[in-house]
Amino acid sequence: MCWSATADLVAGTGIAAVGVVSVALAARRRRDLPLAALPLLLGAHQIIEAAVWRNDGGTGPATTAWAVLALPLLALWVPAAVLCAAPPGARRRLLVPLAAGIATAAALAYALATRTVTAEIRGHTVGYSLGLSHAGLIVGGYLLATIGSLFLSGDRGLVLFGALIAFGAAVSVVLWRQEYISTWCAFAAVSSVLLSLWAARRRPHAARPPGRG
User: Fold this and answer.
1) Helix (H, G, I), strand (E, B) or coil at 198
2) Between 194-202 and 156-175, two packed helices, what is the crossing angle to 10 degrees?
3) 170 against 163, higher pLDDT
4) Under DSSP, is residue 59 helix (H, G, I), strand (E, B) or coil?
């Protein structure tokens, strides 16, 4: 996905289409809608990165939009969406990743408001630089908010999704240490198509007509 503008555009369009299907499947369970919409959001994110490619990186609006979605928005969206969809028994423990997401999103939003994010095309990947203070603490909070909330959800489908994202994060750090944010987001976008299956599985069954079955 992050290998070229065309790859990002094609993949982003396909993932966003899956997101539309996921939202349609979750329409009858409103608490599932924020999480079902995640592929739509991540697909749009890849489309935005296609614009970053076409602008040869830099500090333009596309770079800023990419960073806003990747950093503060997802840090808050994922734990909040998981909390909405979670069963009552899991909601108390999900307050921890939600709190981490709120704090991390606030720190990232402040950094974006006071610093300039820069994108650099590096071969077949894109590197983003923001110059974060306390980067290790912020990354830890981000991982707790996103992957942690999925692991604590109590839903096997979401735990699997979380495991795939965790695997993608590890691979991205090992193979593309300087560009892991971009490559991990691309991996997460592809993995998010699993949420359409999750939404389909949770869709309420139509009531059977009286006298049948």
Assistant:
1) helix
2) 170
3) 163
4) coil
Sign of CA dihedral 79, 60, 43, 174: negative
Inter-residue contact 117 to 130 (CB < 8 Å): yes
**Cβ 108 vs Cβ 75: under 8 Å:** yes
pLDDT digits over 71-82, tens only? 999 999 999 999
Q: How far apart (Å, rounded) are the C-alpha atoms in residues 10 and 24? A: 22
Terminal C-alpha separation, the chain: 47
pLDDT at 208: 44
Please, where are the H alpha helices in 60-94? 61-68, 74-85, 88-91
Q: Residue 1: pLDDT above 90?
A: no
Helix axes 5-25, 38-54, angle to 10 degrees: 160
Beta pairing partners, 118? 129
Total residues belonging to the chain: 213
Q: Could you tell me if residue 133 is left (phi over 0), alpha (psi between -120 and 50 degrees) or otherwise beta?
A: beta
| Greatest mean pLDDT range, 56-70, 114-128, 129-143, 159-173 | 56-70
**Mean pLDDT across the stretch 174-194?**
69
pTM check: above 0.85: yes
Structure-token match 């608490």, residue found: 31
Rg of the chain on CA atoms, in Å: 18
Contacts of 60 (CB under 8 A, 6+ apart): none
Per-residue pLDDT reduced to its tens digit, 102-115? 999 999 999 999 99
